[in-house]
């Protein structure tokens, strides 16, 4: 288990950092674009959720 964590640890941290950055950007930009693009955001978020759960379900 430790070996697996060490093997995959190099990409987990950058991915978490990117996700956190994207979340902050979306939250900051949300007020500016919510009126125009909230449907697009909701669609993208729901599709990402479906894809991630589908991928997790396969393993």
Automatic annotation (TrEMBL):
Keyword entries, A-Z: Membrane, Transmembrane, Transmembrane helix
Regions crossing the membrane: 6-28, 40-57
This protein's record includes keyword Membrane: yes
Descriptive protein name: Uncharacterized protein
Organism (species): marine sediment metagenome
């Amino acid at each position: 288990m430790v070996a697996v964590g060490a093997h995959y640890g190099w990409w987990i941290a950058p991915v978490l950092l990117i996700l956190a950055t994207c979340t902050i950007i979306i939250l900051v930009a949300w007020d500016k674009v919510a009126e125009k693009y909230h449907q697009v955001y909701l669609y993208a978020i729901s599709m990402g959720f479906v894809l991630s759960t589908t991928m997790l379900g396969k393993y």
